[in-house]
Amino acid sequence: MNLIEHARAIEAAIQNAYADGYELDNGSGEPIREMDLNEVGARVLQDWSSIELPEPTYY
């Protein structure tokens, strides 16, 4: 799988969990509003793909 395919698979998993009543947070109870999947080579960011997240139901 390439970067885009991995990002879409992660996005699908997050959307499925959301549909089942689960939501991401940042570890401090605050919702995550944006997320990227990064490709790193030789300790340098080479590329990224944004992951679409559902709108949090809490604030």
Notes on the structure:
The chain is α+β, with helices and mostly antiparallel strands. 29% of the residues lie in helices and 25% in strands. A two-stranded antiparallel sheet has the order 1-2. The protein has one domain.
Element layout with pairings:
Elements: H1 3-19, E1 35-41, E2 44-51
Antiparallel strand pairs: 1-2
How do you describe this structure in short?
By secondary structure, the chain is an alpha+beta fold. The protein has one domain.
Quickly list its features:
globular, 59 residues, 1 helix, two-stranded antiparallel ribbon, 29% helix, alpha+beta
Count all strands and give the number: 2
Beta-strand percentage range = 25-35%
Uncertain spans, ≥5 residues at pLDDT below 50? none
Strand order of the largest sheet: 1-2
* Total discrete domains: 1
* Element-level helix/strand string: HEE
Shape: globular
What's the overall average pLDDT, rounded?
94
| Helix count, DSSP H or I runs of 4 or more residues | 1
User: Could you tell me how far the N terminus lies from the C terminus, measured between alpha carbons in angstroms?
Assistant: 35 Å
Task: Give me the Rg, rounded.
Answer: 13 Å
Give a short account of the largest sheet. 2 strands, antiparallel
Secondary-structure class: alpha+beta
What's the helical proportion of residues?
Answer: 25-40%
